[in-house]
């Protein structure tokens, strides 16, 4: 799922300090799962802001809510009757949700309340790791189920670079060398012969090089 | 089990002594269906544990963990607490005893006394406060400590001058100057002696100057010095000048391991000295230097060794191996300690404070009691017991547990207390529920739809609250709050007559919410809830405002502001009360059958006891044969024949009508919850599958001897483990030919790989050394050890071994002995610490005291969802007070699956597990608490946070991909509700809106 972290409180205070009526909107999807933007975080942020502005002697009305998903029109519509009461909205959804909310309510000031980081997995509670870069053309079938795009710092396609040392990446010794992982896994799978076939340069047009992307599924359209 | 059969046995038990062991035995028995008389010589229950500051190895506050037990005992319908009471005579036999009790006068009626303390405030006489170990004074009208049960004062007539002031101020009219002793006869089926021990008085040891030097204190005095409720309010001070000490010394084995005083080991002093040193360092404002002078560091209990290591390495406690020969005055009040170090050189060092780690001994009054009751004492005047029947005294039907059985720590005492309860329960099972009281509960009236009608009762608490807070003003203020339909103030809201009054008012005014503004809910909430239940009102429609502890006590100098705060607290309570909902406590159906996993000594004992208690029991054993590790043991150190006992035990188990045995059986599935488990088992040799439904589970999976990789083990035939030596000793012929044998202790224990002490190997080595000496007195036996951990009465055998010429030589972890094979002959080299040079000797055999390691239970643990430590032993619910329970209810633990232990200790723990399981099965009136967590599944993100954070492993993501919480398993801790990132979990009775309303009302 998408992984995000809450923005520092000071940053959000700075964003909203000139308003008096603010709505904080959480998202019940990915950001709830990574505990960055669910209803609980909405309430924690709301309470923190109220405490801050009360102590600062500034009037500030803050309301809290959360939507099933902010990446769907239908759920965003649920705000239509109340959003006009607020001068600004802080969205704790991922970057997609913040933008879609801003798009749906075009004349409303919408601020992000989280930093959206990556698509990843939960290693344990509070520890998340990147696993996919959404390149648009999956090659995991050939790399032992470990993605060199997401897990090699240089996105190498034909084995490790010279910076791989004792299984670690030269960028940071905390990072496993993606290619070491691929090698180890292929060895277990008895597929080391994959290394004998060089891989052609990747067509990055399906990734960000082709500009903002869009999927149109004719089979699904109504 | 609840059948009321005709029986001539008496279904009541007398428990003598209400320390932590007595309380545990009483609770287990009362919950199992027996009426309990719990006597204590003092005016309160709680024993020595109530005086302790912190408890090892968790550093929990002693009072914090014992006080809920005090409350539970005090409120139990089937425990009659009899303070100030001695047992004078005991006639009859098992099943039919007649005891004469003598209640000494207390001069204050504990039934009328509300514990308000007004009498103490006017008392003009002071006396030595024995609760604070004589370090300060108390009034002649006194209560031992504020949490005491019964919560009632007493008058010390030895110092009382009879001025009568207390009688004048006591509004409850509880003072009885003319109180007299009262004799009473009771009938019981069995008796448990939990009379405990006294601490050794070091006044007679002249070279320590305890009686002359104020800065020489006993360890119990030091506990009180550290305690926040002690004489110095928890500030680290020394008695002479009330200065904070900079250097403190502990002297171990004072009144223990000393042929002049008591020759046995008191078993707990090493650990409490380490704990006191660590806690003292926490209390100190600057650097505090702590030194412990010891002979052997006996940290043999579960996780104790790691506590010792942390004290030495992280806290910098100094450990000096020496027996101190004298403490002399140094300057005005400092102390000079002279000792000989382990190299034999004289040393001396000055300290600000010396703590004598005093041991346990049996008091004169207990010796008299034993004589009156006709039970045998051993050579140290402790109750005489048998290793195979550790809680039975010489008189059938009279059981013993706790320190009067042998010096021991709290968890061991608690285990034995449950074991003694198990013994009684098995002996009296047909009389279960024949003497108990029960309470009729009227049907509950429906209130959920009705408009809240709130009644507010404000307590004066004598003058405790009323003397500071303007109670009538608070009462009138409460009247103005919305939906409050009745207000009232009482002198003592907690008194019995007020309960009757409250009941009437609830009915007359048709109240459906009750608010009491008085004391702490900790002690009083259950009592008021009972009043609600008695008039058919759901007990969750009750709320308290603590206007005493949180208001009148802390703001006694500002009465006006205290009154304003009382109003705030009442307004908050009313705001929450308005939103309270009645909660249903569903009855718990309990399958009347127990499952014991493991057919070793512990499992067999547990199964036999449960079957004797009347419960059908199934044993699952993975091997072909029953018996486990005990099959490899010849005799105990006391000389008792293990095989004979084991064969009889197995025969008893096999012939018992209520026991089924499944051997070569493997647990492959486990589901359900307390009272309703289903275990799937594959049973050999055909490996057919069986499903067993049961209400309680006992885990007794044992442990195994480590296969050493050290000291040529496996390479040379004559290098063997203790168990292997045991076989050779039983056969005799080979060992009789030996000239010299070396035993090496701590092989695979107390090292980097396994930091734990294996507890049983020191006595194992000494036991076999003595048996070898019996076979061939000329045999040289050398035991190479690090600390010889012969705790309790095991010390006798250490002494005996030394007298018989067994040689003991100490080695350090960084300089272990060397074992070599030269031309097939074994040779051992070790460093002699007195000669300080290497000693080399040819030997016929090398015996390794190999560690006791956990059995492989990883899969079982994950099936049962029960926790294990890093070293693979199961983790009990609470190291001190719940030593045989798992945190998940209905699952219990015993034997070496918990940690290494002796046969006698395994037996006691197995009986304890049987007592706990039996009490659980017998209590068919159990309900599931209404305070459980609920998921609003429509918005659940299935994020797994609740699954990951629940300490009991209850929530799971169901087939609909949402979290599901089984209310029967939920413990109501609220962790999931507070952690849920989607805020879709609410804890009933503590719902967000209820607490938000309360908080909002504050502002």
What this model shows, in words?
The complex is a heterodimer of chains A (222) and B (1003). Chain A has 222 residues and is of the alpha/beta class. Chain A folds into two domains: 2-118, Response regulator (Rossmann fold, 3-Layer(aba) Sandwich), CATH 3.40.50; 136-209, no CATH class. Chain A is built from seven helices and nine strands, in the order E-H-E-H-H-E-H-E-H-E-E-E-H-E-E-H. A four-stranded parallel sheet of chain A has the order 3-2-4-5. In chain A, strands 1-6-7 form a three-stranded antiparallel sheet. Helix content of chain B is 27%, strand content 24%. Chain B has a five-stranded parallel sheet. Chain B is built from 24 helices and 50 strands. Chain B is globular. The chains are: A alpha/beta (222), B alpha/beta (1003). Chain A binds chain B through residues 28-29, 32-35, 38-41, 43, 66, 68, 122, 124-125, and chain B through 939, 941-945, 948-949, 979-984.
Number of helices of chain B: 24
Helix content of chain B: 25-40%
Spatial order of strands in the largest sheet of chain B: 5-2-1-13-24
Percent of residues in helices of chain A: 25-40%
Label the overall shape of chain B: globular
What is the straight-line distance between the termini of chain B?
54 Å
Oligomeric description of these chains:
heterodimer
CATH structural class of the largest domain in chain A = Alpha Beta
Task: Label the overall shape of chain A.
Answer: elongated
> Spatial order of the strands in the main sheet of chain A?
3-2-4-5
Characterize the largest beta sheet of chain B: strand count, sense, and whether it forms a barrel.
Answer: 5 strands, parallel
In percent, how much strand structure appears in the residues of chain A?
Answer: 15-25%
């Amino acid at each position: 799922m998408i992984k995000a972290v809450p923005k520092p409180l000071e940053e959000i205070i700075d964003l909203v300090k000139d308003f008096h009526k603010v709505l904080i909107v959480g998202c019940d999807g990915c950001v709830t799962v990574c505990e960055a933007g669910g209803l609980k975080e909405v309430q924690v942020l709301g309470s923190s802001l109220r405490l801050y502005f009360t102590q600062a002697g500034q009037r500030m009305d803050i309301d809290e809510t959360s939507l099933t998903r902010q990446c769907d029109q239908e759920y965003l519509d649920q705000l239509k009757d109340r959003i006009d009461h607020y001068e600004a909205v802080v969205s704790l959804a991922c970057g997609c949700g913040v933008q879609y909310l801003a798009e749906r309510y075009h004349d409303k000031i919408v601020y992000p309340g989280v930093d959206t980081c990556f698509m990843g997995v939960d290693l344990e509670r509070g520890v998340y790791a990147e696993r996919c870069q959404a390149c648009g053309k999956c090659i995991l079938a050939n790399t032992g189920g470990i993605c060199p795009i997401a897990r090699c710092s240089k996105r190498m396609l034909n084995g490790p670079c010279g910076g791989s040392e004792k299984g670690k990446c030269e960028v940071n010794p905390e990072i496993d060398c993606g290619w070491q992982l691929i090698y180890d896994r292929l060895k277990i799978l008895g597929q080391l012969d994959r290394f004998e076939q060089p891989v052609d340069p990747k067509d990055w047009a399906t990734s960000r090089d082709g500009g903002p992307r869009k999927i149109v599924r004719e089979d699904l359209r109504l | 089990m609840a059948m009321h059969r005709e029986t001539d046995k008496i279904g009541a038990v007398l428990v003598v002594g209400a320390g932590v062991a007595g309380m545990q035995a009483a609770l287990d028995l009362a919950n199992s269906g027996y009426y309990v008389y719990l006597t204590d010589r003092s005016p309160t229950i709680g024993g020595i544990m109530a005086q302790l500051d912190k408890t090892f190895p968790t550093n929990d506050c002693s009072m914090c963990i014992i006080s809920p037990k005090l409350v539970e005992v005090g409120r139990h319908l089937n425990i009659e607490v009899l303070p100030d009471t001695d047992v004078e005579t005991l006639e009859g036999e098992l099943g039919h005893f007649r005891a004469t009790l003598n209640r000494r006068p207390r001069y204050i009626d504990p039934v009328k006394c509300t514990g308000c303390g007004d009498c103490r405030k006017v008392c003009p006489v002071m006396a030595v406060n024995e609760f604070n170990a004589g370090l300060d004074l108390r009034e002649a009208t006194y209560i031992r400590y504020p949490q005491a049960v019964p919560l009632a004062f007493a008058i010390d007539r030895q110092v009382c001058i009879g001025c009568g002031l207390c009688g004048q101020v006591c509004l409850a009219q509880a003072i009885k100057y003319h109180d007299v002793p009262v004799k009473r006869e009771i009938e019981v089926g069995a008796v448990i002696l939990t009379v405990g021990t006294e601490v050794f008085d070091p006044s007679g040891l002249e070279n320590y100057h305890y009686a002359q030097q104020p800065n020489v204190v006993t360890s119990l005095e030091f506990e009180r010095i550290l305690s926040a409720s002690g004489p110095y309010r928890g500030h680290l001070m020394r008695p002479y000048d009330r200065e904070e000490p900079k250097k403190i010394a502990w002297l171990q084995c004072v009144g223990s391991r000393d042929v002049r005083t008591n020759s046995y080991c008191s078993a707990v002093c090493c650990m409490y000295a380490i704990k006191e040193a660590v806690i003292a360092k926490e209390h100190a404002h600057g650097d505090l230097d702590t030194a412990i002078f010891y002979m052997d560091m006996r940290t043999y209990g579960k996780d104790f060794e790691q506590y010792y290591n942390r004290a030495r390495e992280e806290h910098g406690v100094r450990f000096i191996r020496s027996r101190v020969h004298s403490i002399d005055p140094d300057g005005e009040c400092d102390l000079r300690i002279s000792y000989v170090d382990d190299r034999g050189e004289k040393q001396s060092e000055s300290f600000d404070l010396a703590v004598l780690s005093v041991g346990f001994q049996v008091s004169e009054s207990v010796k008299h009691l034993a004589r009156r009751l006709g039970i045998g004492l051993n050579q140290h005047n402790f109750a005489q017991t048998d290793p195979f029947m550790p809680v039975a005294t010489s008189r059938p039907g009279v059981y013993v547990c706790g320190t009067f059985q042998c010096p021991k720590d709290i968890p061991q005492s608690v285990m034995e207390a449950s074991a003694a309860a198990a013994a009684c329960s098995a002996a009296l099972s047909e009389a279960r529920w024949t003497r108990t009281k029960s309470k009729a509960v009227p049907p509950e009236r429906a209130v959920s739809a009705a408009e809240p009608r709130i009644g507010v009762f404000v307590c004066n608490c004598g003058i405790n609250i009323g003397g500071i807070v303007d109670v009538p003003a608070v009462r009138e203020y409460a009247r103005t709050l919305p939906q409050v339909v009745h207000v009232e103030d009482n002198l003592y809201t907690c008194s019995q007559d007020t309960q009757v009054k409250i009941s009437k008012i609830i009915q007359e005014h048709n109240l459906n919410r009750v608010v009491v503004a008085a004391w702490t809910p900790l002690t009083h909430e259950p009592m008021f809830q009972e009043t609600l239940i008695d008039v058919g009102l759901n007990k969750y429609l009750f709320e308290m405002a603590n206007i005493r502890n949180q208001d009148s006590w802390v703001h006694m100098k500002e009465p006006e502001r205290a009154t304003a705060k009382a109003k705030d607290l009442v307004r908050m309570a009313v705001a929450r009360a308005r939103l309270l909902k009645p909660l249903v406590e569903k009855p718990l159906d309990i399958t009347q059958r127990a499952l014991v996993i493991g057919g070793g000594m512990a499992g067999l004992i547990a199964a036999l006891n449960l079957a004797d208690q009347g419960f059908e029991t199934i044993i699952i054993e993975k091997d072909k044969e029953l018996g486990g590790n005990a099959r490899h043991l010849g005799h105990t150190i006391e000389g008792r024949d293990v095989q004979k006992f084991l064969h009889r035990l197995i025969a008893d188990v096999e012939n018992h009508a209520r026991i089924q045995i499944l051997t070569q059986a493997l647990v492959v599935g486990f589901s359900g919850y307390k009272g309703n488990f289903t275990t799937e088992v594959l049973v050999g040799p055909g490996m057919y599958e069986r499903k067993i439904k049961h209400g309680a589970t006992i885990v007794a999976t044992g442990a195994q001897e480590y296969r050493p990789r050290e000291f040529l083990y496996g390479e040379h035939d004559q290098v063997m483990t203790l168990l292997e030596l045991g076989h050779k000793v039983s056969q005799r012929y080979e060992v009789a030919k030996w000239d010299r044998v070396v035993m090496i202790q701590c092989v695979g224990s107390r090292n980097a790989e396994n930091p734990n002490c294996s507890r049983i190997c020191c006595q194992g080595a000494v036991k076999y050394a003595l048996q070898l000496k019996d076979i061939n007195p000329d045999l040289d036996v050398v035991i190479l050890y690090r600390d010889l951990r012969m705790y309790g009465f095991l010390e006798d055998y250490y002494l005996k071994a030394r007298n018989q010429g067994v040689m003991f030589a100490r080695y350090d972890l960084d300089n272990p002995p060397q074992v070599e094979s030269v031309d097939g002959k074994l040779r051992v080299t070790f460093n002699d610490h007195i000669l300080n040079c290497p000693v080399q000797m040819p030997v016929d055999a090398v015996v390794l005291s190999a560690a006791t390691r956990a059995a492989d239970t990883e899969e079982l643990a994950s099936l049962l969802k029960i926790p294990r430590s890093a070293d693979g032993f199961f983790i009990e619910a609470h190291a001190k007070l719940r030593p045989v329970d798992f945190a998940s209810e209905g699952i219990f633990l015993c034997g070496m699956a918990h940690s290494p232990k002796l046969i006698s200790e395994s037996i006691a723990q197995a009986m304890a597990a049987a007592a706990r399981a039996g009490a659980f099965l017998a209590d068919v009136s159990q309900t599931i608490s209404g305070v459980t967590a609920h998921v609003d599944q429509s918005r659940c993100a299935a994020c797994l946070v609740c699954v990951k954070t629940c300490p009991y492993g209850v929530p799971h993501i169901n087939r609909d991909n949402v979290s599901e919480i089984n209310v029967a398993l939920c413990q109501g801790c609220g962790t999931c509700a507070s952690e849920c990132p989607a805020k879709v979990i609410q804890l009933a009775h503590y719902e967000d809106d209820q607490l938000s309303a309360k908080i909002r009302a504050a502002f």
